Amino acid sequence: MGAPADPLNDAEDTFNGGFLFGKDEESGTERQALAREELLARLTALIRSCEGCGKVAVLEVTPLDAPDTAGCNWSLAVVLEPAGVAPEVYVLAYASVVLMARERWNLQQPAH
To answer: Which residue of 41, 49, 64, 77 is most buried, as measured by CB atoms within 10 A?
Structure first.
């Protein structure tokens, strides 16, 4: 319960996968830099794909001053809108989604 369904492998879904993980991009270790709004939308879509989390939303991510040792520039600490979903339901989805996303995406730095 709570483990994320694979949004790229849903036989009933019309979603083609390009939005979430950049299907057309070459796979590699470099993270894709996303604008804050795009990162929030992707995180929300992933969490909502998890059982029981269809209304949960990611409202904010916490930028880091410098990338961590893994190269990610945003924190595990995110602000959620649980929309009445019990913590014991969304906590596994949160952990799984955020860990997976931090391996793939960075927060785009504002232009100076």
So the answer is: 49
Overall residue count recorded for the chain in this entry: 112
Tell me which residue has tokens 């949960």. Answer: 56
Domain ranges of the chain: 31-107
pLDDT in tens, 86-108: 999 999 999 999 999 999 999 99
pLDDT of residue 45: 98
Give this prediction's pTM: 0.73
Angle at 4 between CA 105 and CA 108, to 5 degrees: 15
Half-sphere exposure of 41 (CA within 13 A, CB side): 8
**3-class secondary structure, 15:** coil
Helix (H) or strand (E) holding 98: helix 87-104
